[in-house]
Specification:
By secondary structure, the chain is α/β, with parallel strands linked by helices. It folds into 2 domains: 3-187 and 225-249, 3-Layer(aba) Sandwich (Rossmann fold), CATH 3.40.50.720; 195-222 and 255-306 and 327-350, UDP-galactose 4-epimerase, domain 1 (Alpha-Beta Complex). Helices cover 38% and strands 18% of the residues. It has 10 helices and 15 strands. It has helices spanning 12-23, 62-72, 86-91, 93-113, 154-173, 195-207, 228-239, 257-267, 313-318, 327-350, and strands at residues 3-7, 27-32, 52-56, 76-79, 121-127, 176-182, 185-186, 214-216, 222-223, 226-227, 247-249, 255-256, 272-277, 280-285, 291-295. The strands form 4 sheets. A 7-stranded parallel beta sheet has the order 3-2-1-4-5-6-11, with helices on both faces. It has a 4-stranded mixed beta sheet with strand order 8-15-14-13. Strands 7-10 form a two-stranded parallel ribbon. Helix 2 (62-72) runs parallel beside helix 4 (93-113). The chain is globular, with a radius of gyration of 21 Å. The two termini are 41 Å apart. It binds NADP nicotinamide-adenine-dinucleotide phosphate and guanosine-5'-diphosphate-alpha-D-mannose.
């Protein structure tokens, strides 16, 4: 039985990856950092699994990491943990660098210290936003693993280092270490601080009269959105190859945040009309002229990636990977899921149960 070490599964990708690995009979070592509140809702259903063990660790802690890696001696390590919010990285650049970049280095060093660099395969969660699409936004051109990189936030600068240190350990120590350059992927397990889930939760609440308005910032940003379930399969496939290689994982379809807002409201039969005056954009419900969406400068980012679309031919040819979900199907699933959870919450509240309120997102 193969052993996998997955950092971090309270997040979106970790929750799906662990399900996938358990279905393939892996012994999964699940890493979590200490939290004073419960944040395991995405994986609570797995607690009864016998091949599933929880350990505590934080990306900033080398001592416990070396102990864990030396004891477990995993066959595969998936490094998913990160302070992964781009806007927050502008507020906390030093913490972001320490955890995202030095955290990756700590993991690679721990593999060496445990003497498993020849047997353990390492996956690094790299990101699409190492490429800044705006300057390449030409329909006749497409971009691949080899295209020039131009990170636009402290988060992406940290991820760029993490990517190169992974490549460096592969070249220097002949390790099986690779980077998955994943474009945005979403799902009902996406945390609500990211734009798609923020939208689908707000739309669900608005349709149930539990929220009045949705506040957003850059509605024209374009993203190549896929489904996280498809993307964790690509992570797994990368570590099953004979050679470690970096792969772009994307759907090769791009849409604006504005499109995602429209689709989400369409799912609850609300038609919007927008009125725009410079940055003061407002969207109204055509049925009663209530304002439902507004632009709010609180979500401004000092530097923005406006456009993302990349070519994943290499992964499709070599990994035989192909996305199963379209972005519209994913949006539909997310809105339906959110309506269901808020309906359940309302029923529980009406029966006198106390429900923790969602925080401001
Ligand atoms: P996510 O939902 O934000 O999950 C990140 C996880 O990292 C959370 O479980 C979080 O734990 C943990 N974490 C944060 N700081 C930590 C620290 N100091 N020590 C230990 N753990 C820490 O992210 P995701 O969407 O699943 O993405 C997984 C990885 O892929 C991330 O590295 C992300 O940067 C990268 N990525 C994501 C996308 C995407 O579109 N989803 C695209 C490209 C790359 P808590 O729950 O305790 O906060
Ligand atoms: N989060 C957020 N909240 N984003 C907003 C909002 C808002 O209220 N309004 C507009 N946006 C815009 C952002 O400015 C950005 O252009 C776009 O929506 C997507 O934002 P996010 O969903 O936060 O994702 P991201 O692209 O910045 O980063 C995600 O994808 C990367 C891969 O491309 C994260 O998962 C990163 O960890 C990941 O590397």
């Amino acid at each position: 039985m193969k052993k996998a070490f997955v950092t971090w599964i309270t997040g979106q990708d970790g929750s799906y990856l662990v399900e996938l690995l358990l279905s393939k009979w892996y012994e999964v070592h699940w890493i979590k950092r200490r939290s004073s509140s419960f944040n395991t809702s995405r994986i609570d259903h797995l607690f009864e699994e016998k091949d599933f063990t929880i350990h505590y660790w934080d990306l900033s802690d080398s001592t416990n990491l070396i102990k864990l890696i030396s004891e477990i001696k995993p066959d595969e390590i998936y490094n998913l943990a990160a302070q992964s919010h781009v806007a927050v990285s502008f507020d906390m650049p030093e913490y972001t660098a320490d955890t995202v970049w030095i955290g990756t280095l700590r993991l690679l060093e721990a593999i060496k210290v445990a003497w498993i660099e020849k047997t353990c395969k390492f996956y690094q969660a790299s990101t699409s936003e190492l490429f800044w699409g705006l300057e390449y936004n030409r329909p006749e051109a497409w971009y691949t693993e080899e295209s020039p990189m131009h990170p636009r936030s402290p988060y992406w600068c940290a991820k760029l280092y993490a990517m190169w240190i992974t490549r460096n350990y592969k070249e220097s120590y002949n390790m099986f270490a690779c980077n998955g350059i994943l474009f945005n992927h979403e799902s009902p397990n996406r945390w609500e601080t990211f734009v798609t889930r923020k939208i689908t939760m707000a739309v669900a609440k608005i349709s149930l009269w539990l929220q009045e308005k949705l506040y957003l910032w850059n509605l024209d940003a374009k993203r190549d959105w896929g489904h996280a379930k498809d993307y964790v399969e690509a992570m797994y496939l990368m570590l099953q190859q004979d050679e470690p290689k970096d792969y772009v994982i994307s759907t090769w379809v791009t849409n604006t945040v504005r499109d995602f807002v429209n689709w989400s409201f369409e799912e609850v039969w609300i038609e919007l009309e927008w009125k725009w005056k410079w940055e003061d954009e407002k969207w109204y419900n055509k049925a009663n002229w209530e304002c439902l969406v507004e632009v709010d400068s609180r979500y401004f980012r000092p530097a923005e990636v406006d456009f993302l679309l990349w070519d994943s031919t290499k992964a499709r040819k070599e990994l035989w990977w192909t996305p199963k979900y379209t972005v519209r199907e994913m949006c539909k699933e997310m809105v339906a899921y959110d309506i269901q959870i808020f309906k359940k919450q309302e029923i529980l509240k009406n029966h006198g149960y106390e429900i923790l309120e969602q925080y401001e997102i």
